[in-house]
Design goal:
By secondary structure, this protein is of the alpha/beta class. The chain has helices spanning 18-27, 50-56, 77-83, 98-107, 154-167, 184-190, 199-203, 209-217, and strands at residues 5-8, 33-38, 64-69, 87-90, 111-116, 134-138, 172-176, 194-197. It has a single domain (5-217), classed as TIM Barrel (Alpha-Beta Barrel), CATH 3.20.20.70. It contains 8 helices and 8 strands; from the N terminus they run E-H-E-H-E-H-E-H-E-E-H-E-H-E-H-H. It has an 8-stranded parallel β-sheet with strand order 1-8-7-6-5-4-3-2. Helix 2 (50-56) runs parallel beside helix 3. 42% of the residues are buried.
Length: 219
Amino acid sequence: MKKIQISPSILSADFSQLGNEIKRLEEGGADLIHVDVMDGHFVPNLTIGPPVIKNLREYTKLPFDVHLMISPVHKYIENYAKAGADIITIHPEATENLKDSINLIKKLGKKAGVSLNPETEIKTLIDEIEHIDLVLVMSVNPGFGGQEFMPEVLTKIKELKDIKEKNQYHFSIEVDGGVNFSNSKIILEAGADILVSGTTVFKENNGDIKTNIEKLKSI
């Protein structure tokens, strides 16, 4: 039985208590901390930057799973690496040279992720897929929390799983967007290894994070 990992998105946390919220996630059984970084340009919203990530780093030893929704992304990679990111995920559309950006992330000693928007095809990253540590499949259009899961991305997840198994690649398949109790089973069955969830982890069952994480894992 494969290990299912949960990477709660702090986009749904209480921003006035972020440090304590991260502690709650660790105590509740989270495997990673998902940090959504938005620039108001690549996506229509603004969130946190490197100084906040650096300050939050002291609150947990869990890996920071940092999703950069910023463009141009290449010149900011080092800032996020130094701030404490452990996994740095970028969008192919946000860099002039995907290979160079992946190489930079690796050079900085971090795991490299590439994110696929719902309309972005797998072929966009296929030339670099053997060098990638994580493929993040967006199951909503990025930029806002609380959106509904788009079931059409299940085909993409299955295709990635087939590519991974056929070639014996080692990248993880992460899914982000509208993940909840009713769809986590089909997402995991399609081939996901990591589930990103914000609203469900923080809001369901009166905010009982431990219960919510355990329920998402129970396929």
